[in-house]
Amino acid sequence: MTELAMHAADRDIADTLCDQVRSAYETRTPLRIVGGDTRAFYGRPVDGQALQMAEHSGIVSYDPVELVVTVRAGTRLSALQAALAEKHQMLGFEPPMFGEASTIGGAVATGLSGPRRPWAGAARDFVLGTRVITQEGKLLRFGGEVMKNVAGYDLSRLMAGAQGTLGVLTDISFKVLPIPNATHSLRLPINLEDALKKLAELGRKPLPITAAAWHNGELFLRLEGGNSSVSATQAQLNGEPLDASFWTSLRDHTHDFFQLSDDQALWRLSLPPHTSPLALDIPEADIFYDWAGCQRWVKTSLDASTLRAACAAAGGHATCYTPHAQGGAADPFTPLNKVVEKYHRNLKAELDAHGIFNPSRLYAAF
Where do the FAD-binding PCMH-type domain residues begin and end (predicted)? Predict the structure, then answer.
């Protein structure tokens, strides 16, 4: 592990974290779980004592042959990615990095995935196992390098997207992927209607597409795979070359599109494949179509109910990404229906009876 230690500081503070959680449980003290604190904009603000995770870092084990890596939650994403890249491997879900301090624990807790997600899978699809601090301050292992624990519940994957509301992630084991041998990105001038038709057509063919987006009269595609496959598809599609940094700027929200005016909030619309443009009073230039149109970034001053009604009618949902101080929604996530809310409450009550883990991070009531 000497070579990998160059990328990630190796420090295990799990015992200290367990003591802090145990004390919080006994005194009913709410905890705000903090890694790099680069994703604070995603979700509701948490009022609680900070549980600092950044020092709990380092790569615990890495087997490039088996495509498995285990890493502590406070490890910076940049350090993990650098270590994997040395073996020509990567995190398949292409996690967004909203700053140099971004940690792998935060990436899993928020469950966010980058442009490759429709073709490779979501963050939870790559989680093999976790170690989690429970409400009583016990450090338990779930999964490992298998897909579910002995109780039959896939608790490791359940932690992906839970935003720390069910326990404290300390270690995560991932399935990793080889970096493709060849990659080429291109751009094509095309209107939105024709772009959506073309994307539907391309989706029915065995092409090496791993990212597809449209904005402001241009379709953007990324091709990855074997040299011959990428070259043949490139020749078929033609188009102007596109710098690979485009996908990083889209993934990390550093693209110029994500600059908001004072009256705008940023929304993420999640929709079924091949959904037509929604009937919303929003300029075309203020919508960025990602994931071949299934994920749409919207800059708007429209209210939450209008956006969510339009998404719900199409079978999707809307999430606000903008912090409250900048005009975002008071409830960033789509309200749960009664059945789902019941299961959510029951799960929360079982795993966090006193509400100490990131209270009200997802919803105000729990």
Answer: 1-179
Looking at the structure, do residues 166 and 229 belong to the same domain, yes or no? no
Q: Measured between alpha carbons, how far is 311 from 198 in angstroms, rounded to an integer?
A: 23
Q: Pairing between strand 295-300 and 287-290?
A: antiparallel
Phi, psi at 75, each rounded to 5°: -65, 135
Q: What is the pLDDT of residue 6?
A: 45
The type of residue at 293 is: G
250's tokens: 């889209």
- CATH of residue 307's domain is 3.30.70
User: Domain for residue 361, yes or no?
Assistant: no
Range of the domain at 75: 2-178
Site of tokens 């037509």: 276
pLDDT digits 0-9 by tens, 91-111: 999 999 999 999 999 999 999
The mean of the pLDDT values for the chain is 92
CB 14 within 8 A of CB 56: yes
Give the helix ranges, DSSP H, for 174-300: 192-203, 227-237, 245-251
Q: Would residue 20 count as lying in a domain? A: yes
Q: Which of 178, 197, 225 lies at the terminal end of a domain, its last residue? A: 178
Q: Kindly report, residue by residue over 173-207, the tens digit of the pLDDT.
A: 999 999 999 999 999 999 999 999 999 999 999 99
Per residue in 65-74, pLDDT (tens digit) is 999 999 999 9
pTM: 0.92
Q: Which residue has the tokens 């904005």?
A: 215
- 254-272 average pLDDT score: 95
CA distance linking residue 285 with residue 303, whole number of Å = 19
pLDDT at 81: 97
**d(Cα 268, Cα 277) in Å, to the nearest integer?**
14
344 assigned to some structural domain? no
Which pair of tokens denotes residue 299? 């800059």
User: How many domains does the chain fold into?
Assistant: 3
Residue pair 236/223 in contact by the 8 Å Cβ criterion: no
Q: Which residues pair with 11 in a beta bridge?
A: 57
pLDDT at 153 over 80: no
Per the CB < 8 A criterion, the answer to whether 187 and 239 are in contact is: yes
Q: Are residues 231 and 208 in the same domain?
A: yes
Same structural domain, 107 and 160: yes
Last residue of a domain, one of 211, 234, 251: 251
